[in-house]
Specification:
Layout: E1 5-6, E2 38-41, E3 49-56, E4 60-61, H1 62-66, E5 74-80, E6 87-91, E7 102-103, E8 107-113, E9 132-133, E10 136-152, E11 155-167, E12 178-184, E13 189-195, E14 207-214, E15 231-237, E16 253-261, E17 266-273, E18 285-291, E19 297-303, E20 316-322, E21 333-339
Antiparallel strand pairs: 1-21, 2-3, 3-8, 4-7, 5-6, 5-8, 9-10, 10-11, 11-14, 12-13, 12-15, 16-17, 17-20, 18-19, 18-21
């Protein structure tokens, strides 16, 4: 698996500053596999943060320890690793992105209480629920609008749709073509676009993302390219498949020295070829995924021109990813990943 860099951003000023929780969905907590000795002290209230302390057996599974607050009562938890001084995180029902695996006796954490239902907002919101499509699943998705000084057919507005995918099979898979259908309040189709995942081939257990914009400078004649005026919801469909015979498996690319600046609008670092194969010119793609406090995707951005020369084993190339003004970057945590095929 490729390495990833994660870092939750929390504000601590003699206590906990409440984080925005618009649209936080109800999350099913982990169940008990065996009896747990102990209790979580100072459990968080619904939709609020709390400094909680585990009082019980050391090396207790985090999900089981938090479940002593009540099934499904805790959505998110963070703790600082005493060795590395970096944040560890736990998301209910999200083991693939959780790094806070166990708790020790008298260990303190920052915990967020789960909310019983999403809040209603006056702006268009995500309506499709994550689901399966074979063995590649849609974990979560998000849509938002921005404006740009660059006009496309006289249009300054943009609608963006991003989504996180995961290969839950034991074999390499492709997400195939990803269809995004936009609907208005009358449930009429007002837009359609086909797109692809950032990872051409998704390795077992690996997550990747897709991102699409209406309108954009590149689209097929069978697709719409207008701003979907009056959109209220969208649907995402997947067509997973096995890799074709001519497709090579991706090489191992690590990311190092990741820095996030300008309140999340600027991400830099180095991509390192950790494999024994050479990657061709511009073959390394690096992307950042921003997550909300509940672990769902907020935004994502990719850099596709990282290495202007072939990248040999052990060699590195710097990357620089920038988010446009107006894009949501008020993330709670993030992951930076790289993808590349051999030369």
């Amino acid at each position: 698996m490729r390495s990833a860099t994660t870092k939750p951003i929390l504000l601590l000023l003699g206590g906990i500053v409440a984080l925005g929780l618009l649209g936080l969905a109800w999350i099913q907590g982990a169940g008990f596999s065996e009896a747990v000795q102990g209790n979580m002290q100072n459990c968080p209230q619904a939709g609020k943060w709390a400094i909680s302390v585990w009082s019980g057996d050391s090396a207790t599974d985090t999900g089981q320890a938090l479940a002593t607050c009540g099934e499904g009562q805790v959505a998110v938890a963070y703790s600082i690793d005493p060795q590395t001084q970096t944040w560890l995180r736990w998301f209910a029902g999200r083991p693939e992105v959780s790094t806070l695996q166990t708790l020790n006796d008298m260990q303190g954490i920052i915990a967020l209480g789960a909310v019983g239902a999403p809040q209603v907002t006056s702006t268009p919101t995500l309506t499709p629920t994550p689901g399966t499509a074979g063995d590649v699943i849609l974990v979560s998705s998000n849509a938002f609008t921005t404006t740009s000084s660059l006009l496309i057919d006289g249009e300054s507005r943009r609608m963006h749709v991003v989504g996180e995918l995961r290969n839950e099979s034991a074999m390499p898979r492709s997400a195939g073509e990803i269809g995004i259908t936009i609907y208005d309040a009358a449930d009429d189709v007002i837009g359609f676009r086909g797109t692809l995942a950032f990872d051409d081939i998704i390795m077992p257990g690996r997550t990747t993302v897709f991102a699409e914009t209406y309108p954009s400078g590149l689209y097929l004649s069978s697709e719409t390219n207008d701003f979907p005026e009056g959109w209220t919801r969208y649907e995402v469909t997947l067509s997973p498949r096995d890799p074709y015979e001519w497709e090579e498996l991706p090489v191992d690319v690590a990311v190092e020295n990741v820095q996030v600046a300008d309140d999340g609008r600027h991400v830099t670092g180095n991509a390192v070829n950790a494999s024994s194969k050479t990657v061709g010119q511009y073959g390394v793609h690096v992307y950042v995924i921003y997550y909300r406090a509940d672990g769902t995707i907020l935004n994502a951005k990719r850099k596709t021109t990282v290495n202007d020369q072939p990248l040999g084993p052990g060699e590195s190339a710097a990357f620089d990813i920038s988010f446009s003004s107006g894009e949501p970057v008020d993330f709670s945590s993030y992951v930076v990943q790289a993808y590349a095929e051999p030369e």
